[in-house]
Amino acid sequence: MLFGKIKSIPLPQIVRMIGVKSGVLEIKSPENKLYRFRFSRRQFLGAEKQDIPIGDTFELKSILLELSQKEESFFIFKEIEQQEDNVSFSLPAVQLIIASLHALRAMYQKNLPIFFPDPETVFLSTGNDPSWIGSEFFSFWIEAEPFFSKGSSAKELAKNLPIELEDILFYIYTLRLLNMIKTASKKRTFYLPISDRSDLNSIENTHAILNIGPDSAATGSNPPPLPYESSTTAIQIYHSDQQDIKKGLLRRLIYGFKNFFRKMYE
Predict the structure, then answer these.
(1) What is the C-alpha to C-alpha distance for residues 137 and 214, in angstroms, rounded to an integer?
(2) DSSP for 169-214, written as a single string
(3) Entry pTM
(4) Quick one: which of 68, 162, 228, 265 has the most CB atoms within 10 Å?
(5) Alpha helices in 71-129 (DSSP H)
């Protein structure tokens, strides 16, 4: 069973951890407002606020923005088989991850930096198709992919791209959630990685993708399924990420102070 506070695990990470499970994600705000999100085997089926169904994408985006501002909200995921014959939405769960990331993007300077990876952690491309991730993330991907194909860190990208380190860390955080990049082994790899499709547990998607981000993804493009993670594996990954986060926070503070003093003496 997954439970905790939104400030400990942001909504996009919760959706990724749910993975192939079927059930209801309940989120209770500090004002005792109850939000429900229903999932079935990597599909997002619908949402409710105070038992009132969310009927359209505009309302859903508004709800996601609300939740991004309520970091003290408590969540619990109840694993229950879901009926798929009466749904408000029927789209891959990764599309909800993208939508919730866009909601957090407006506030990421306050909420997300504590979840960003260590600037020196090396990431590799998974080889998945990037055309479905939306124009904002796709624009960054076009510039960064040649570096990720060989293995690169946020710190290295900041030296080679005209993008601030904090923005690069946000994009890396996003691309990792969307299974576009993965953490490299300690030993640096200098070849283009080939995606291991056997690990992706691919599923047939018979429903048209409804893009609920602020920009449109490429027409007819299906997102790759997220890698399967058991509850135990998800928790282990979460704890491993927390160790990287602590190291990353310290390194970003040092990096920030260096820039501050450099500008003082310029």
Answers:
(1) 11
(2) HHHHHHHHHTTSEEEPPSS---SPPPP-GGGS------S-----SS
(3) 0.65
(4) 68
(5) 93-105, 108-111
3-state SS class at 116: coil
Query: Nearest CA to 231 among 239, 223, 221, 242?
Result: 239
Residue 246 has which token pair? Answer: 């602590």
- Per the CB < 8 A criterion, the answer to whether 217 and 132 are in contact is yes
- Contact at 8 Å (CB) between 122 and 82? no
Model confidence pLDDT, tens digit, residues 181-212: 999 875 444 333 333 333 333 323 333 334 45
Sign of CA dihedral 87, 95, 28, 232: positive
| Cα(176)–Cα(37) distance, integer angstroms | 22
Hey, which of 5-9, 188-192, 217-221, 235-239 has the most confident mean pLDDT? 5-9
Residue 23: CB atoms within 10 Å: 19
Residues 130, 133, 138, 142: what is their CA dihedral angle, to the nearest 10 degrees?
Answer: -20
In this structure, the chain runs to a length of 266
| Helical (H) or strand (E) element with 247 | helix 231-264
Domain ranges of the chain: 2-264
In eight-state DSSP terms, residue 225 is: P
One-letter amino acid of 75:
F
Cα separation, 163 vs 118, whole angstroms: 17
